[in-house]
Design a protein that fits this description.
Blueprint: E1 2-8, E2 11-22, E3 25-31, H1 37-44, E4 63-66, E5 69-72, E6 85-87, H2 101-108, H3 118-131, H4 137-144, H5 155-165
Parallel strand pairs: 2-6
Antiparallel strand pairs: 1-2, 2-3, 4-5, 4-6
Helix pairs in contact: 2-5
């Protein structure tokens, strides 16, 4: 990490050079220490699949995986993510003609409408898919409740994740 202090017209600007590892690729970036990971991913790395909703960590639209754990990228500074493994929604599809099982389940179960919250839900659900495949329905509901959707009512999101996990149990309540 290299820190630069730039003097411009009577004020100082601090910039930090860091290396971000996103979706298996290195992104050397120079950012102000206060710049969020979400803004850096979108603006400096050009990966616009990560959405910004509330920018307060409440909605989950900005969820990415860092070292295989879901994090709210609007609550993290980019400098905190230096040299960590970050995955965004752009990493999910193995090719341009094939979808990740979670993406396919969201389509099959009609688990999206406007699509704004979908990248965050997909990253959260992918973490569950990869790290907690035997999760109970009660635990799954609790985990999914950390992200917000204003369109779908959650039942189809729950059904999609259960489908991808290989679970056929659904309930009438979401």
């Amino acid at each position: 990490m290299i820190i630069y202090i730039i003097q411009e017209e009577g004020f100082s600007k601090v910039t930090v050079s860091i290396d971000l590892k996103i979706n298996g690729r290195a992104y050397p970036v120079a950012v102000e220490p206060r710049k969020t990971l979400a803004d850096t991913i979108r603006e400096d790395c050009g990966l616009t699949g990560t959405n910004l909703g509330c920018e307060h960590g409440v909605c989950g639209a900005c969820t990415v995986l860092m070292d295989d754990e879901p994090v709210r990228s609007c609550l993290m500074f980019a400098v905190q993510a230096a040299d960590r493994e970050i995955r965004t929604v752009e990493s999910l599809a193995p090719s341009e003609t094939e979808l990740h099982p979670m993406q396919q389940a969201f389509i099959d179960e009609h688990a999206l409408q406007c699509g704004f919250c979908t990248p965050g839900f997909l990253m959260l659900a992918t973490s569950i898919y990869e790290n907690r495949p035997g999760v109970s329905e009660e635990e799954l509901r609790e985990l999914l409740s950390s992200n917000l959707c204003r369109c779908t009512g959650y039942l189809n999101i729950l059904k999609a994740v259960q489908s991808a996990l290989g679970s056929s149990s659904t309930t009438q309540h979401a």
